[in-house]
């Protein structure tokens, strides 16, 4: 089944990947808000097709949004290595609260786009990460 959402005309480009952060408070009175906010906060998506249909919008800079077909992208998190880190196991995601701001992995270690204390199933362990603070971290594919 194809998932359809609305996005600003300036962002409606096939192949664009984005993370939905949640609904905007300014949109609370809009009559088509359910089409815009039918995505899950913190999840990443890719636009697979841009449709011709446009709708008015007061938020985006061209005052219009387009209908797009989207697919959910695999989710990844960085998890400290341990005995419980196995494919198929369920883990509770916890932020590392790392303060090494120049690290390229800080967003995934600190769960910037995910809620801490969320349960997830490990689909696959992808790679060992180079942690500047010395932690034994792994990039893992997860499913909620």
How would you describe this protein?
- With 144 residues, the protein is mainly beta.
- The chain folds into two domains: 3-72, no CATH class; 75-143, no CATH class.
- 6% of the residues lie in helices and 42% in strands.
- The strands form two sheets. The chain has a four-stranded antiparallel sheet with strand order 1-4-3-2, with no helix packed on it. It has a four-stranded antiparallel sheet with strand order 5-8-7-6, with no helix packed on it.
- Strand 7 (118-129) and strand 8 (137-143) form a beta hairpin.
- 16% of the residues are buried.
- The mean pLDDT is 88.
Shape annotation? elongated
Radius of gyration: 18 Å
Number of strand elements: 8
Number of discrete helical segments? 2
What does the average pLDDT come to? Answer: 88
Beta-strand percentage range: 35-45%
By secondary-structure content and strand pairing, the structural class works out as mainly beta
Q: Sheet bearing the most strands, described?
A: 4 strands, antiparallel
Q: List unreliable stretches of 5+ residues.
A: none
Q: How many structural domains in the coordinates?
A: 2
| Helix and strand sequence | EEHEEEEHEE
State the helical fraction.
under 10%
What is the CA–CA distance across the termini?
Answer: 19 Å
| Strand order in the sheet with the most strands | 1-4-3-2
Q: How do you describe this structure in short?
A:
The protein is 6% helix and 42% strand.
């Amino acid at each position: 089944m194809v998932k359809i959402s609305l996005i600003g005309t300036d962002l409606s480009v096939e192949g664009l990947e984005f993370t939905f952060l949640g609904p905007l408070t300014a949109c609370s009175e809009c009559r088509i808000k359910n089409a815009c906010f039918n995505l899950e906060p913190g999840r990443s998506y890719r636009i697979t097709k841009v449709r011709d249909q446009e709708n008015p919008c007061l938020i985006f800079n061209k005052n219009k949004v387009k209908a797009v077909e989207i697919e959910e992208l695999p989710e990844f998190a960085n998890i400290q290595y341990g005995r419980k880190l196995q494919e198929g196991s369920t883990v509770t995601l916890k932020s590392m609260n790392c303060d090494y701001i120049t690290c390229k992995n800080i967003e995934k270690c600190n769960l910037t786009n995910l809620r801490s204390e969320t349960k997830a199933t490990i689909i696959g362990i992808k790679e060992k990460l180079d942690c500047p603070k010395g932690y034994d971290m792994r990039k893992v594919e997860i499913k909620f």
